[in-house]
Amino acid sequence: MRMKHVAAVAAAATLALGMSACGGDGDGGSGNGGGKGIVGKAQSQKKLVIGVKADQPGLGLQTGSTYEGFDIEIAKIVAKGLGVDANNIEWKTTVSANREPFIQQGTVDLVVATYTINDERKQKVNFAGPYFVAGQDLLVKADSTITGPEGLDGKKVCSVQGSTPAKRIQTDHPKAKLQQFDAYSKCITALEGGQVDAVTTDDIILAGYAAQSQYAGKFKVVGKTFSTEPYGIGLKKDDKDGCEKVNEILKAAASDGTYKAAWDATLGKSGKAAPELDTTKLTNCGSV
Amino acid sequence: MHVFADPTNLDAYLSGFLWILKLTGASAVIALVLGVLLAAFRVSPVPVLRGFGAAWVNIFRNTPLTLIIFFCYFGLFSTLGLTLSDDLNLNNFWLGVVGLSVYTAAFVCESVRSGINTVPAGQAEAARAIGLTFFQTLRIVVLPQAGRAVVAPLGSVLIALCKNATIVGTIGLIEASSVMKQLINDNGDAVIPIFLVFAGTFAAILVPTGYFFGWLANRLAVKR
Amino acid sequence: MSTGVLYDHPGPRARIRNAVLSVAFGLGLVALLWWIYTKFDQAGQWEAALWKPFTQSATWTQFILPGLRQTLLAAATGMVLSLAFGIIFAVGRLSEHWWIRVPAGVVVEFFRAVPLLLMIFFIFYGVPFLIQGPVTAFTAVVAGLTLYNGSVLAEAFRAGIRSIPGGQSEAAYAVGMRKSQVMRLILVPQAARAMLPVIVSQLVVLLKDTALGYIVAFPELLARGVNDLSANYGNVVAAAIVVAVIYILINSLLTALANWLDRRTRQRAFRIPKQTAPDSTPAGGMAVSEPQG
Fold it and tell me: Where in the numbering of this chain does the Solute-binding protein family 3/N-terminal domain appear (chain A) (predicted)?
């Protein structure tokens, strides 16, 4: 009798462990093949794993089974330039906190996820680009009187915990009352409900939310940026060849119109003209 | 340890744990009162009260605290318009206290109810025989005896409450876990010492608390 | 003590009083719920546009179910590992050798005292420095759950083993069993049975705790079903209500299982009457269940 119980428990345990083993798929093993970087992997395997945001409308948003947005289009251009068909891209959801680990661990080959190039991150990963230059801005209700960060004194402003925009508010505008959540969608909901007076992060992300159909006419982006956020494409730190190749692809995209087409199909829908991709500002891929 | 030599970081560390202690203290009092009341509901002769107590326990005990705290902000505050303070941080603090209290009360209720189960039936029967009403039976005879049996489980609930207070960080209160996150983000080279300081502080508060309740439970145990 | 003995069988007056109380309290409750309903209505939370996504299959197949799968996967793995951790450290704390007993005690006390949120965060961001290698979000969540719930379970098992009458191990030694055999064949199986309700309720806690994985962006039910979904439709409150209902259903099932197991073990109590007598189990058992969020 007791043995039967032990056997049943053991069977249950094996089952659970088996389930977890299946669940481990995609958590590893998708790193670059044979140390050749993404160029080699794209050539030999004809597929890529790309980390993107899943919760940023207009940039990287998971809608049902697909992802859409400007970052997604940029990623497709890069993949195509590396010889990988858009259908062979495996999208992987990343959030701000796990972008460096995902690249370092090889969980993803590339990260195109509103990824600001800065010196601290350059210690850990390599950056191609920038393919876009954003800046911190404010999203307010359509009838708000706030016209810039100076108008935030005594006002409630919302951002994501530990994010650079949140920190900048704390240090540069200490009189603003900062409300922090773990996701921008919660900030937007609080703004809609009137619990906060403004939401702050990169202008392009705010524009993406403002353009969503359910918020049509409710919000406006103030349009007075107070920082510079060059968005780069993250790769492994030692993959200099891959980085240079991606920069070449971006240069080509700027001249042959595919960059503009990517903009027009996504963020440009709201009528905003495509920005100029300044190819002279592309990174040197870590060379000194 | 250079991280904590910086006075701003030290202040952040202290204020983070101060929030945790305040959250724990306020929620512990409310949850205890609420939990005992719910336990009384659950053993009362009125079916609606029993049902209410059972529903409370089943709903709040089975929902992740993260979601309960979320509903305190977006349900109580945003939608129902319940403003608990004009100050943004204090408002979030009190919303957190509400969330922690209703959640913890469910566990207090269940502990007290099983405490009531440890009181021999003869005690209540004798109380009824001398003509005490339900509330008299509960208040004078059963709960005082049950109280001794639930010291240890309530100690565990209190310890869990203190740790759960970190979840109030999700609605923006900069308590200890949010401070630790921030410090780790800013000082990538000192992740391990930072963690050890925060974890060590929790251990320094909670391990003695655990031993204290164990000692108290032994002292107060009903010898049968 | 069954709670029925707390009050007399209601007579005519008591029945009327109870009915009046029921109606009054019931009406108050309905009024409160109605007020909440109208407030949500005023805030536009019942608007069809916010709830329509839940009638579309993509919402379920792309957001909620994948999230649920990760939640259950992490919970199942965490359950198996924390049971193993619990047994090993419970036995360790009962060891005769101080150099096993003391470290086991320190480990258990430490992990019980550290909030899970801190633990998961540290495993994800700190441990890679120690092991010079990556840690996935899944590993971080499962490891955190294992260390914390395993420590709580270790205390449950220890209380369970100590609640077994001394005669059991004396008899086992008398028939010539070694210490490890006594533990493995006599004490642990009985302790597990005596502590079954506590163990299962701790597993409910473990399942809920997977929600803390949001801190390392583990794509579980809360992250996928609330954050990612509402980025599409701006329906964060509606999504949270749906996800809460799912959690309540799953955990109620687990709790029902716990109650069923409890009744089943109690029915068998006649076979090993002493340690399942109502006085000993709840006291030892309750002492160790911990409602971490």
Answer: 47-270
